[in-house]
Specification:
The structure holds 2 protein chains of 2 kinds. By secondary structure, chain A is an alpha+beta fold. Chain A has 9 helices and 21 strands. Chain A folds into 2 domains: 223 residues, P-loop containing nucleotide triphosphate hydrolases (Rossmann fold, 3-Layer(aba) Sandwich); 127 residues, OB fold (Dihydrolipoamide Acetyltransferase, E2P) (Beta Barrel), CATH 2.40.50. Chain A has a 6-stranded mixed beta sheet, with helices on both faces. A 6-stranded antiparallel beta sheet of chain A has the order 13-12-11-14-20-21. Chain B is mostly helical. Chain B has 2 domains: 45 residues, no CATH class; 233 residues, MetI-like (MetI-like fold).
């Protein structure tokens, strides 16, 4: 097992800069999730660790060893592919035994390790099948089995469960996390699904258009996003963003829009006045679960809006509200509001300490 | 992926293929082509069989005399017939092995090389030449008076006496060289098209597993170009087993019958000695071997993996 370090890594394809000056350290035994929408450079970063892409600039270190010029087979890193990439002509056993055979392990040792791994992954019954005889979930287990048998320096996962159905995905998230914690192998896991990152990773590294946006524990990223983009990317349903203007009032600051006036808490007001906003424009972020709803206007529910749609989800519901031109999602207990008709008036409440403020031009969070 | 998508034909109102209704509908459409093919190939085939049991009369109106199995019997005691099979076997096996081997190597070198398209065009040029022309060209190269290759081999001491085409030891291999020169590019092209279909993710997986280039070729690339190789082998074998052009142009079967391949012997029997009945018998044996080998290759090609059984799908 080993640590992994990116030192000023760039990846360029002809005109396109896929990864821009990536600096990132993955600690020994850590589960790091590279998260971002498609085309953000997360897969390129992963493939550079694997050795499947050349590093245009910068260094990647495995422990203290520079691995830029090592061939994939000499890096001792194992990877699970999005497409599973099983060998169609080999049986499940042979697929899993392949890396061990290439390492010239004894027949008994190969047999022992493959069967042991198959037992953990509950695929013992499938060992004599071929990939074409397996379901998607089974193939995915075999692909994971093929890396687990190896006991490598690090695991790389490239969207390994993206093609499974939702129910199986939820189960595999737990299994993968359990296996990683049991083995304690350094892991880099690429996904576009923030839920996978939130639920499995020790730390998340969020990328956008080749640039690393934020690195932190899921808790940090969720509660203290560095900018409006990260704030809206993490969390489901995503954080609501309201556009307003900062104005001075009563010795403090307020955020004002035609429909509402929000008093900005003192600490954030101080930060905002030193942040030098362009034209005093601010974006207010509030998570759907930090909002409350009422059918009548009262001091706790000062913002007036209209119902756009209601999505019931069993015990809770997501209420889609229009405030002026802004669309706001509210996550609330079932039956909080009496009139759920379209366009029915509804009133929104918020807790001031649950609000985020972003520079409307740069998108940077102001704390 | 959903397999159960509607076929385009269903949209147009034509029945789905391979149902009785479809066959009733499609059969009449194919009929003209089938009749034409029958006239072109089945009639001569039947006539060939007829000839092989007769002493064919040559003069106009002269009747053919039924001789039973005489032609067939003669074949078994004809030592040149068997010798020609031997020459043909050596020729076609060696050519095929060299062509497929070199062609595959060439395809691997060409694949994703910088000037792939240009190189392919250049390489294909020998193939576009008529075999007889190629034979004549090589006859100049092998010529014992002014041939470059003759001169070259003599210079380096590989050929001590005689000429390339004039000695029984070298003549056959000289013709093999011509065939290899002419047809290796075709094999390279076929294999190259197969290499384009090698799944990249499996290649990468094998590298991550720890395989080097040679190992990953045998593990991932070879299984997926197997089909292309089979096609190449089939094409080259069927071509080589009925080859005659190069032999006529270069040696005419000599020296001392050392290059008299079966098709050439058959040609001689039929059109030099006008033993049309005997020629027909020889032709039929050649045809039989070709069909058997073709069938063998096609069967290998069509080998499929067993389908997944339903009852085991449930786990996970």
């Amino acid at each position: 097992m080993a640590s992994l370090t990116f030192n000023g890594v760039w990846k360029r394809y002809d005109q396109v800069e896929a990864v821009k000056d990536l600096n990132l350290a993955v600690a020994d035994g850590e589960f790091l999730c590279l998260l971002g929408p498609s085309g953000c450079g997360k897969s390129s970063s992963l493939r550079m660790i694997a050795g499947l892409e050349f590093i245009s600039d910068g260094d990647i270190l495995l422990d203290d060893r520079r691995i830029n010029d090592l061939e994939p087979r000499h890096r001792d890193i194992a990877m699970v592919f999005e497409s599973y990439a099983l060998y169609p002509t080999k049986t499940v056993f042979e697929n899993m035994a392949n890396p061990l055979r290439l390492r010239k392990l004894s027949k008994d040792e190969i047999d022992r390790r493959v069967r042991e791994t198959a037992r953990i992954l509950e695929i013992e019954r499938l060992l004599n099948r071929r990939p074409s005889q397996l379901s998607g979930g089974q193939k995915q287990r075999v692909a994971i089995g093929r890396v687990l048998v190896r006991e490598p320096q690090a695991f790389l996962f490239d969207e390994p469960i993206a093609h499974l159905d939702a129910k199986l995905r939820a189960r595999m998230r737990g299994e993968l996390k359990h296996i990683q914690k049991t083995l304690g192998t350094t892991t880099v896991y690429v996904t576009h699904d923030q839920l996978e990152g939130m639920s499995m990773a020790d730390r998340m590294a969020i990328m956008r258009e080749g640039v690393l946006q934020q690195v932190g524990t899921p808790h940090e990223v969720f509660n203290r996003p560095t900018n409006v983009w990260v704030a809206t990317f993490v969390g489901d349903p995503p954080m609501n963003i309201l556009n307003a203007e900062v104005q001075a009032a009563d010795g403090g600051l307020v955020a004002r829009a035609p429909e509402y006036t929000i008093t900005i808490p003192a600490q954030q007001a101080a930060a905002l006045s030193s942040a030098r906003l362009t034209d005093n424009k601010v974006q207010i972020g509030v998570r759907p679960e930090a909002l409350t709803l009422s059918s009548v206007r009262d001091p706790q529910h000062p913002i007036a809006g209209r119902i756009y749609a209601v999505q019931p989800l069993g015990d809770v519901e997501i209420v889609d509200v229009r405030v002026g031109d802004d669309r706001i999602l509210v996550r609330t207990e079932l039956g909080t509001i009496s009139n759920e008709d379209m366009n029915a008036p509804v009133f929104l409440g918020y807790k001031p300490e649950k609000l985020y403020f972003f520079d409307a031009v740069s998108g940077q969070a102001v704390y | 992926m959903a397999v159960d998508t509607a076929t385009p034909g269903a949209v147009l109102g034509t029945p789905r293929p391979n149902t009785p209704r479809a066959r009733r509908y499609l059969a009449p459409l194919l009929l003209p082509a089938v009749i034409l093919l029958a006239l072109l190939s089945i009639y001569p085939f039947v006539w060939l069989i007829y000839m092989s049991f007769h002493a064919v009369g040559l003069a106009p109106g002269a009747p053919s005399e039924f001789v039973g199995l005489d032609n067939w019997q003669r074949m078994f005691t004809d030592s040149q017939y068997w010798a020609s099979w031997g020459v043909l076997a050596r020729y076609s096996v060696v050519s095929m092995v060299l062509e497929v081997g070199l062609g595959t190597l060439l395809a691997i070198l060409l694949n994703r090389s910088k000037h792939e398209k240009l190189l392919i065009t250049v390489l294909l040029m020998p193939m576009m030449m008529a075999p007889v022309v190629a034979g004549l060209l090589w006859q100049y190269l092998y010529n014992g008076t002014f041939g470059w290759y003759f001169w070259g081999l003599r210079s380096v001491g590989l050929l001590d006496e005689g000429t390339i085409l004039g000695s029984a030891d070298t003549a056959l291999w000289a013709i093999v060289a011509v065939d290899v020169w002419e047809w290796t590019p075709l094999v390279a092209l076929i294999v190259l098209s197969g290499l384009k279909l090698v799944p990249q993710d499996q290649l990468e997986a094998s590298w991550m597993d720890g395989a080097g280039p040679v190992r990953s070729f045998f593990q991932v690339a070879l299984p997926s170009i197997k089909g292309s190789l089979m096609i190449a082998i089939l094409l080259r074998f069927m071509d080589n087993i009925r080859i005659i052009d190069h032999f006529i142009a270069l040696t005419g079967g000599g020296p001392a019958n050392s290059t008299k391949v079966l098709p050439l012997y058959l040609y001689e029997q039929s059109f030099s000695f006008f033993e049309l009945g005997y020629g027909a018998s020889i032709a039929l044996t050649l045809l039989l071997v070709t069909i058997l080998f073709g069938k063998l290759v096609v069967n290998r090609f069509e080998e499929r993996e067993p389908r997944p059984s339903k009852k085991d799908e449930e786990l996970v």
